[in-house]
Write a structure and sequence with these properties.
The protein is an alpha+beta fold. The protein is 55% helix and 18% strand. Strand 3 and strand 4 form a beta hairpin. InterPro entries: C2_dom (IPR000008), C2_domain_sf (IPR035892), SWEET_rpt (IPR004316).
Length: 377
């Protein structure tokens, strides 16, 4: 029958009825696996880029240790090179995307860094090493280059995976795992599982050995979350007062106390201190209180002062980031317990209200208390 004799409505009904079956006939497991890996890698790149929003919100990136970001870039770059050497466009595409995302993150990490010297040196050395490797590869036979880059990638990824063994030992010893965030562990396990299947499918030894070992160790960490489940904890509540003395161009922040700080996994009660960062017209000033030892309810009663511009427009472009830190925590991923941001456009209603009242009552101390928020949000 000529298709033109069939009414359009019936043609559409036939198309939509047969479309799923037709699609499944043309798709195989390998295509679905590659698509799934691509989607997961896409969201992994977005997760990396989300750090930029956090740094912009804080006005700096110094609270984050830079080494994981450097290693992430090196790993994605090396696997991209490996993809080119073995002429595998899937490996090139996903790792090229991650390399681009990690490059943007590194640039932002540097821009928002107050102390740039160490980071600049590491980035320079990393770039020099990457360039030297590419130059070396041009002088080697392709098969030698494949084995060289594949070996470096595998050793590096396995080395990173082995660092998780320390976390596993600590979790078993303490019977808790609340010092490791669950979402990244679950996401990475999912990706590694799929990439391991992919490496078996294409019979790539280096992909298989590196991702297989990483998946196994990460899977053990993933399993521990079900053996040692942990309830989400509140981050505490900070009590503070702020005073704007317009005639003296001085902003005073009085840190009174903090209630109910959480214990930090294996480290127990924190050694808290408060870091106050003033951002005004793209200029950053930072001061901090003394450190109190081994307490979840520190009482500071300390005041810090900043010289500020008191023009109406200047104050509109001013924000105050009050971060509660733990001297016990490693700087990676972060030593920040929680924070509040005071400004005219603060997201938290209580923070915006305290700031508004301060502007309306110069010379008067405005006291308030705020629930600490996760700095990654």
């Amino acid at each position: 029958m000529n298709s033109t004799s069939v009414p359009l409505k019936e043609q559409l009904q036939i198309f939509y009825k047969d479309f799923p079956k037709s699609l499944l006939r043309h798709l195989n497991f390998f295509d679905l696996l590659c698509t799934s890996i691509g989607i997961n890698i896409f969201f992994l790149g977005l997760a990396a880029l989300s750090n930029i929003r956090r740094w912009k919100k804080r006005g700096k990136s110094d609270q984050d240790f830079f080494l994981p970001f450097i290693l992430a870039w090196i790993g994605s770059f090396l696997w991209t090179v490996y993809g080119f050497l073995v002429t595998n466009w899937q490996i090139e595409l996903v790792n090229g995307y991650l390399t681009a995302a990690n490059s943007v993150v590194l640039i932002a990490l540097y821009i928002y860094r107050i102390r740039k010297k160490s980071l600049a040196a590491v980035i320079f050395i990393t770039g020099l090493a990457a360039g030297s490797l590419l130059l070396l590869l041009t002088q080697l036979p392709n098969i030698t280059s494949v084995h060289l880059v594949g070996s470096i990638c595998s050793c590096m990824q396995i080395g990173c995976a082995c660092t998780m063994l320390y976390m596993i030992v600590l979790a078993i010893k303490k019977k808790r795992i609340d010092f490791i965030p669950f979402p990244p562990v679950a996401q990475i396990f999912n990706i590694e599982f799929q990439v391991t299947l992919y490496s078996i499918w294409i019979e790539d030894f280096y992909l298989l050995i590196s991702n297989g070992i990483f998946m196994t160790i990460d899977g053990l960490v993933f399993l521990l979350f079900f053996i040692y489940p942990s309830e989400p904890t509140k981050l505490g509540r900070i009590h503070l007062g702020i005073t704007l003395e317009a005639s003296a161009r001085r902003l005073t922040i009085n840190i009174a106390k903090i209630d109910d700080l959480p214990k930090y996994g294996i480290y127990g009660p924190p050694d808290p201190y408060v870091r106050i960062t003033l951002n005004q017209n793209q200029v950053t000033q930072s001061k901090q209180t003394r450190t109190l030892k081994n307490t979840c309810n520190p009482v500071f009663r300390e005041a810090v002062m900043f010289l500020v511009s008191v023009g109406e427009e200047d104050l509109e472009n001013t924000s105050l980031v009050v971060s509660v830190m733990d001297a016990l925590r490693p700087s990676c991923p972060s030593s920040v317990i929680g924070e509040v941001i005071l400004s005219k456009s603060a997201e938290e209603k209580s923070c915006a209200e305290q700031w508004r009242m301060m502007l309306a009552s110069p010379g008067k101390e405005i006291k308030a208390s705020h629930t600490l928020e996760n700095p990654s949000e």
